[in-house]
Amino acid sequence: MSKILLAEDEEVLRMLIVDTLEDEEYEIDEATDGGEALELIHQNDYDLILIDYMMPVMTGLEVIEKVREIPDKSQVKIVMLSAKNQQTDKERVTHAGADYFISKPFSPMELVTKIGEILSD
């Protein structure tokens, strides 16, 4: 079973994603802000991190940059979820070290499909 960290401060969206991914039999840990996400990343090994761009404490970009500096965590696949979908935003996300970008709003099945593709690589 693949283990995923979901870092999302919007409770309704977080619950929707968790329910969808648990139905697909993924193991999910949840963080409501960037600081909590980074703590969980230090404590656990994840197959994938789903992270919101705009969060309290630390932004998703800041978390990604810090994760990429952790030697034993630097290769984890990271997907940025964001309503900020201008080209400059996408470039910042790529520069920070995210592997993929999914624009909000997205369908739960779109997310499941993308996660399946990423984890099968």
Percentage of residues assigned to helices: 40-55%
The CATH class label is Alpha Beta
Count of strand segments = 5
User: What is the name of the CATH superfamily?
Assistant: Response regulator
Q: What count of domains describes the coordinates?
A: 1
Radius of gyration: 13 Å
Shape: globular
Strand content: 15-25%
Order of helices and strands: EHEHEHEHEH
Distance between the termini: 15 Å
Record the strand order, biggest sheet.
Answer: 2-1-3-4-5
Task: Briefly note the structural class of the backbone.
Answer: alpha/beta
Look up the CATH topology: Rossmann fold
- Poorly predicted segments: none
Biggest beta-sheet profile: 5 strands, parallel
Counting DSSP H or I runs of 4 or more residues, the number of helices is: 5
Average pLDDT rating: 94
Provide a concise account of the structure shown:
With 121 residues, the chain is α/β, with parallel strands linked by helices. It has helices at 11-23, 34-43, 60-67, 87-96, 108-120; strands at 3-7, 27-31, 48-52, 77-82, 100-103.
